[in-house]
Input
Amino acid sequence: MHPRSVTERLFRRVIAKLFRAGVLDPTKNIINTGSWIGDNALPWAMMLEQLTTKPGKVIAVDPSPMYVNNMVNTAHLNLIGNVCTHVTVYSAKTGTVFTSTTEHMGVNLGLKRGEKQINMITLDSENITNLALLHIDVEGHESELLTGAMDLIKTSRPVIFTEGVSGLTDSNDKKVAEILRSLDYVHESSEIPEICGWNKSCRNHIWWPDQDMKDSAMKVIGNDLSRSEIVPWVSSELL
Output
């Protein structure tokens, strides 16, 4: 395992730049699915608190009670007050799913039986408003999550980050693209040139709610997205 502080550094830089430049509104909320131990959620919450006296909340969601408890404890130790946590799986419908494990990257929601049961809900059922950013890291479950979040996306029009293969050539990536393009989201030239996992073809993709938002963002992060060399997943330095 590699320490998360030196992985996906370009991804983290891009998000920080968008908030610090005012392209994304720090008084609005962030949803971080697949939040693990809070390695993104907690720094994002602290950033929002630094940027405004009325920060939005970071809603951190993971199927693992152990990881969510670790995140809550870390938040308390660091006096981070604008994080909300939820142990669940967001999907296209409510119900119960089975898995052999709820630990990081090991969840398999295709089982009819399993050692563990997880409550499955739609994101729309959460009645979340004022959303600036939706970060989706759910290991192939992206299209199901989006299907259950259509009302939220239509009303808040957040910037959406998804994980997928470079060029969106995977079958699941194509489903994600179909859903988001049906909502008039824009993606062209918005793949972060950085490996984001063990699979060297894996990339973070940015989906913009409209062309104006994308144009504003590119003035801030255009150089980061136009890098000629792919940044490795683990990078101790990022120029």
Observations:
- Strands lie at 29-33, 58-62, 83-87, 89-90, 95-99, 116-121, 131-136, 159-165, 202-207.
- The chain has seven helices and nine strands.
- The CA atoms of residues 27 and 56 lie 4 Å apart.
- The chain has a mean pLDDT of 91.
